[in-house]
Specification:
single chain, alpha/beta, three-stranded antiparallel beta sheet, 8 helices, 28% helix, globular, binds S-adenosylmethionine
């Protein structure tokens, strides 16, 4: 199936988000430039020492996490569908004197644009929901990993995407693993909800945990762990409360908000 209309719409929206995000408290670019690390405790703990590793960062937005890994000594390549995001990422890389590279392409087309293989493929928070199918995504990840290489994903939990957040209180209306795209139009972005300068128009797809694991194992990866957490490092869902350790959680903690998966390509 051809998803050109959906990808073009999403690219246009992400292009508009870049300047708004770069000016937002959420991304706090000035503090980042002064040395703040944008990485969160889940990925820092899971990845350990990345010094000297070749890392491919999928859907890197305007590069804060890519450049945070670069500051930790990884040799990084970030990719994103948004040309505005990649342009800002490159300019931050230059300004900060780092050695990351950035490529603008659809995550499903990475192997047409990059032939290098990596020690680590990394992707995080708000990524797989932009993809209609996970099989080609998993195949590309396997192609881009060296034998023995690690894939790590930390992502919002599929249960959290079953809700329509335009309704107050949010209503559970979307299928856990529904095949049809979900189209939404709303004012603002997660990083600046009040910003009326942008109408976000987005196509998204829900993927259950079974689909994620099956796509990766069928592509030749072995899952090392799959963890589900009821605390999110980002305050992106309505009604979350700050926890003692600086994370965000539902008061009832009824379901997980985040999952992380680490897998290895056989060596
Ligand atoms: C929520 S952001 C990723 C979050 C990232 N961890 C951050 O906060 O910087 C999602 C990113 O996916 C990118 N994206 C969406 N669809 C894509 C696609 N098909 N191929 C590549 N990138 C895509 C968007 O441009 C955006 O930069």
């Amino acid at each position: 199936m051809d998803y050109k209309k959906e990808f073009d719409t999403n690219r246009e929206t992400w292009n508009k988000k870049v300047a708004i995000h770069a000016a937002s408290d959420f991304y706090n670019l000035e503090n980042f430039k002064s040395g703040d690390d944008s990485l969160k405790s889940y990925e820092i703990k899971a990845m350990g020492d990345v010094n000297g590793k070749r890392m491919l960062h999928l859907q890197c937005h305007f590069g804060q996490d890519t450049l945070s890994w670069a500051r930790r000594g990884a040799k990084c390549t970030g990719i994103d569908i948004s040309d505005e995001a990649i342009q800002l990422a490159r300019s931050l890389n230059r300004e900060l004197g780092l050695d990351a590279e950035f490529v603008c392409c659809n995550v499903l087309d990475v192997s047409d644009n990059i032939s290098e293989t990596f020690d680590i493929v990394f992707t995080s928070y708000g990524v797989i929901g932009w993809l209609p199918e996970l099989k080609p995504w998993a195949k590309m990840i396997s192609e881009r990993l060296k034998p023995g290489g690690i894939f790590y994903l930390v992502e919002f939990h599929p249960i959290a995407w079953m809700f329509d957040y335009q309704q107050h209180p949010p209503k559970m209306i979307y299928g856990y693993q529904q095949k049809e795209a979900i189209y939404e139009e709303y004012e603002g972005t997660y990083a600046d909800e009040e910003n009326s300068a942008i109408i976000s128009k987005e196509y998204g797809w829900n993927h259950g945990l079974g689909e994620v694991v099956t796509a990766l194992t069928q592509a030749g990866l072995t899952v090392e762990f799959l963890r589900e957490h009821d605390e999110s490092p980002y305050d992106v869902f309505p009604g979350l409360e700050k926890t003692d350790n600086g994370m965000f959680a539902r008061e009832d903690r009824l379901f997980p908000l985040v999952f992380e998966l680490k897998a290895k390509k056989s060596g």
